[in-house]
Amino acid sequence: TGGDCHIYDNHHDQVTEQLRRDPRPYPELVLHQRNSIFEYTYDDIEISNYDPHPAIKAPVAV
pTM of this prediction? Predict the structure, then answer.
């Protein structure tokens, strides 16, 4: 969301690469209905059609 967004000097190339990428469709999130929030397990959550771009490697800014 960019609430605490910052760019380090040694990350300009990676930011440029990110901004040049075309957005992809959102994945679909399916949450199986339970009677109580305390009944949910990881098996109740499904994510489909998730198609991320490859990771962008960046050096650690020190």
Answer: 0.66
